[in-house]
Design goal:
Length: 419
């Protein structure tokens, strides 16, 4: 059983500590109120700091279980259609996810739906569930110094798909080709059905955590009596107001030396904002062997050679579709299961889409089929003023019935309107 290793608290540990971290009942607490076998929660100024996850040591020291009993859906995955970022084709990602036994995979290219068609075709071929969505980095205009807000929007329905596409259009039309411009303000309207995955990022998370743990009185946040994650809390509170129960906080764990800070930050934000937590992988490639290609793409994007880019490149090759046993070693099972629960809520498929013609082609009070029939027989009367022969009438009826069956009326009405 995976466990939490935490330092002892400065106050008595709350009896409902599972609620603080959104962990399920399987993580049974033992011991008295101030200590337990899983460590303790340090509660200071209303903040819960998770000092360390034992999963780090489990991943390092213990072989993962080869028989995984949980479900997992990758909710954050970009392809080569996120230009100069993703190093795998959409179909490669989908096929690999199927091979690994994932419940579902979301293709979420940045402010784009360019990769979903190929992903859909691959998903139909291999039988895995495909989630459609997009990732965005949004400016926080209320605080010019704040980090961009990083979110993934998923489309659980046809309406939600239209909402995401409208947001993409808005961002692309504001900027030059190849870029986009969006802010938190753009989320305030028109996103009534989308599911949102918030990926909080703070480049100073480690520094802030160390300062808080050391009770440094000179820390700028302490001097202002401000919470160390105040900017992120502000952003998260606004996202929660917009999305309500359609918002999750994602923790992305990699062996890069920052996993401890990510868990500390993630659990603190989730507790204070009362948000559910979900695991995601920030996938950039389907297999780790694509890392050299990903480095080249990144170097081109930042305008440096691979040799000079150095730490501007990804520090390791972990942003790939990891096997389930590896994921189980890095995340608690409830966080992995939550990803599958989100996937269960998404029922939209690209095959639902049909070309939508403008409704103004049809006069009020008429159906497309009835209007096309009127136009057809009006034209036939002009063509045969002395009457329509039975053979011609039979052919017209056959064609009109076939058009109605295939729902092609708007096509012929559009041609008639243009010509």
């Amino acid at each position: 059983m995976k466990c939490l290793t935490l330092s002892s608290g400065t106050r008595s540990l709350s009896a409902d500590w599972r609620h603080l971290t959104h962990l399920p009942s399987k993580y049974e607490r033992k011991g008295n109120s101030s200590t337990d076998s899983f460590g303790g929660l340090q509660i200071e100024d209303g903040t819960v700091y998770i000092y360390m996850y034992c999963i780090y040591n489990q991943h390092r020291d213990s072989p993962p279980n080869s028989m995984s009993s949980f479900r997992y859906a990758e909710l954050h995955c970009i392809s080569n259609y996120s230009f100069l970022r993703g190093a795998s084709h959409p179909e490669e990602l989908v096929m690999r996810a199927s091979e690994l036994g994932y419940t579902a995979i979301a293709v979420t290219d940045e402010c784009s739906m360019a990769g979903v068609v190929k992903a859909h075709m691959a998903a139909e071929e291999c039988g895995i569930k495909l989630l459609v969505g997009s990732e965005f980095r949004l400016d926080d205009r209320s605080d010019p110094n704040a980090e961009p807000v990083h979110i993934v929007l998923l489309a659980p329905s046809r309406v939600a798909y239209g909402e995401v596409c409208s947001l993409i259009t808005t961002g692309r039309r504001r900027s030059e080709k190849g870029t986009y411009s969006l802010s938190l303000d753009d989320l305030e309207t028109g996103l009534h059905e989308c599911l949102a995955i918030w990926i909080p990022h703070d480049a100073k998370a480690d520094q802030l955590s160390r300062s808080v743990h050391a009770h440094n009185p000179q820390h700028p946040h302490k001097a202002r009596n401000e919470h160390p994650f105040a900017p992120l809390l502000k952003q998260g509170a606004r996202l929660k107001r917009i999305f309500a129960d359609r918002l999750w906080l994602s923790i992305q764990a990699f062996p890069d030396g920052r996993e401890r800070a990510r868990y500390e930050q993630g659990f603190t934000l989730a507790k204070l904002l009362e948000l559910p937590i979900v695991a995601s992988g920030d996938v950039h490639m389907h297999v780790p062997s694509r890392k050299p290609l990903q480095d080249v793409l990144s170097a081109v994007r930042i305008g440096q050679s691979v040799r000079l880019a150095g730490r501007l490149l990804a520090p390791n090759r972990e942003k790939f579709l990891r096997p389930l046993p590896t994921l189980e070693a890095w995340y608690p099972s409830p966080m992995l299961e939550e990803s599958a629960s989100i996937a269960d809520r998404c029922n939209f498929k690209l095959s639902e889409l049909r070309y939508e013609y403008p409704e103004e082609l049809v006069p009020p009070g008429l159906t497309p089929s009835r209007y096309l029939r009127q136009l057809t027989f009006a034209g036939a009367q002009r063509r045969w003023p002395n009457g329509i022969e039975p053979e011609v009438l039979k052919a017209i009826e056959h064609e009109l019935n076939l058009i109605e069956e295939l729902q092609y009326e708007f096509y012929f009405l559009t041609v008639f309107d243009v010509v």
